[in-house]
Amino acid sequence: MRDLLIKDLGWKLFSLFLAVAIWLTVHRILEESYSPVIHAGGSTLTYGNLPVFIEASASDVHLYHVTPTAVSVTVGGSPDAIAVLRADEVRATVDLTDLKNPEDLQRRVEVSVPSGITLIKVDPESVRVIVPPKH
Q: Same domain for 22 and 77?
């Protein structure tokens, strides 16, 4: 058992160091992409790289994809409301429940925000829907 722990200890420590360094790098990148940018006056806030969620009917078994997969959303409100707003309270969706015409592949992004918060801008305003072929 002791051999299991001590054998190649240098490589094990090096691997642990690399794993921690990679995790910290990815964590920092994700934090930056979800962190808000507060504009002058403190009454507007921009969340970059918010994922776009797809809403489809339960009977629809297609694996739809959208391009781009993330949008930038600018919201406004009182400084107190903006100060406590979290990124997971702002949700960008594309409604595909009434997708009847497969050629209508451009859909508007709908954004839901909590009460007291106003949607100012969505960039881009629409996304392209990719319908996979049926097998």
A: no
